[in-house]
Amino acid sequence: QVQVVESGGGLVQAGGSLRLSCTASGLTFDDYAMGWFRQAPGKEREGVSCISWSGDSTYYTDSVKGRFTISRDNAKNTVYLQMNSLKPEDTAIYYCAASFLWDLINMFPADFNYWGQGTQVTVSS
Fold first, then answer.
1. Nearest CA to 104 among 72, 39, 44, 60?
2. Which residues fall within 8 angstroms of residue 69, CB to CB, at 6 or more apart?
3. Residue from 39, 6, 117 nearest 48 by CA
4. Fewest C-beta in 10 Å: which of 18, 68, 73, 121?
């Protein structure tokens, strides 16, 4: 059974940093691209960042470019999202997801096969 588990969320002041971690089990981790989505209250789920199985290709939505960095450690079945210079508008539940067929360009939720339960990130002003 596949399990995807996020950790590292919390409350931080604007300008601060957080590092999210996501560990996946029950799958061949380096067969999958790994992505981070977020969903704020009343808004649609948004693709934030994604990394290919090898780590060679990454994607960032425009609003986080230059502030967030995605990375992965295939030996630990873990993907990370380093979030710096956080803004109140980054407040959301952050979800980790695995995709077997990510196209390197888009982050459509339907293209992701397995999802975690989410971790809350709250940025206070």
1. 60
2. 81, 82, 84
3. 39
4. 73
Summarised one tens digit per residue, pLDDT across range 17-62 is: 999 999 999 999 999 999 999 999 999 999 999 999 999 999 999 9
Instruction: Dump pLDDT digits (tens) for 2-25.
Output: 999 999 999 999 999 999 999 999
Return d(Cα 11, Cα 56) in angstroms, integer.
Answer: 31
Question: 46 — phi, psi (to 5°)?
Answer: -120, 135
| 8 A C-beta contact, residue 38 and residue 93 | yes
What is the Cα–Cα distance from 7 to 109, expressed in whole angstroms?
Answer: 20
How many CA atoms within 13 Å lie on the side-chain side of 14?
5
For residue 103, what pLDDT is reported?
Answer: 83
Those residues with Cβ within 8 angstroms of residue 84's Cβ, 6 or more apart along the chain or in another chain: 17, 67, 68, 69
